[in-house]
Amino acid sequence: MASITVPIPTNSNEPILDNGQGVIDPDVYFQINESPADLPEFESKLNTFVDFHKSKGSNVVFITSGGTTVPLENQTVRFIDNFSNGTRGATSAEYFLEAGYAVVFMHRQNSIQPYNRHFTHSQMGFLDYLEPMENGSVQVLSKYAAKMHELLTKYNEAKKSNRILMLDFVTLPEYLFKLQSGSKILARLERKAMYYLAAAVSDFFIPSQKMAEHKIQSRDGGLTLTLDQVPKFLKPLVSNWAAKGLIVSFKLETDSNLLVPKARQALTRYGHQVVIGNMLKTRKQTVTFITQHNQKVLSLSQQQMADGIEIESEIIPELARIHQNWIDSGKTE
Ligand code: PAZ
């Protein structure tokens, strides 16, 4: 069976600047890719939110959550996705709000969202929580009412006090443009900003100049993909875009031997403050905090898991403590 190779160069004469190892520079990435159409609206909402919280002296966390898609065609029919559904980000947002933070929740569209997560993405559909009344109205089934009341109250309170801003992305380019722009806007808060980078961001992509314009046809048989490496955006984020904030990145692995070395390598390479290491299979139970001078495991017992305790209830107080040190002294410990 014949196989075709994608990307199909559409403007093959255009040079793509790289660092000699086939990885383009982050600045070049932004020059040769088109910014998302809704970037001005994203920036306007975020500027207003940041101005409001700067005047109040709030601590603000910029959470990224969920997975990015990697389009295979410019007029996209197919794309590569990953496993992340945004549980980490959405759960963390609730604990950050509880800890007094204002939250920018930059999430993959239709991924799990704070508070709503308790009633979505499960076996039960929205209508399964409700019952129709004879007078024509609808009410929540009594067994869910107390929990829904409690969460709805917290959710409304966060919205009423303007402490949560929901912003979204779908594709890798959307994510990268919004990460750059968003972190520069939050930089006005200096040390009071925390960047909590929990999104599962693709390491590979097809630059739009190399991408097929139209739907890839199946008539030629199998499909072979060649993907470029995504530039390392943590580097400019740490050294330029968000230089004064507390930056927390996540490292996901499936081979436990790699977790701590790779997390420490990221910390050394980019020079930020915290890497949280987690394994795919145990990410809801155990995480490892790596800072410049320390390493600490946070873990839940089987009993705590059975009782519905969430690991984020331990992660966020630990980060809030580190962040306070950072605000007070410019050091994490
Ligand atoms: O979204 P989720 O709750 O299913 O998963 C969270 C996670 C594993 C994506 C996150 O904790 C994480 O490790 N993010 C960074 C992944 C990485 O690029 O290494």
From TrEMBL:
Any coiled-coil regions, as ranges: none
Signal peptide as annotated in the record: none
GO annotation terms (biological process): coenzyme A biosynthetic process
Matching Pfam families: DFP (PF04127)
Domain DNA/pantothenate metabolism flavoprotein C-terminal stretches: 184-303
InterPro entries (alphabetical): CoaB-like_sf, DNA/pantothenate-metab_flavo_C
SUPFAM superfamilies: CoaB-like
GO molecular function ontology, one term from the record: catalytic activity
The family this protein is said to belong to: Belongs to the PPC synthetase family.
The protein's name in its UniProt record: DNA/pantothenate metabolism flavoprotein C-terminal domain-containing protein
Native source species: Parasitella parasitica
Protein's gene: PARPA_05172.1 scaffold 16505
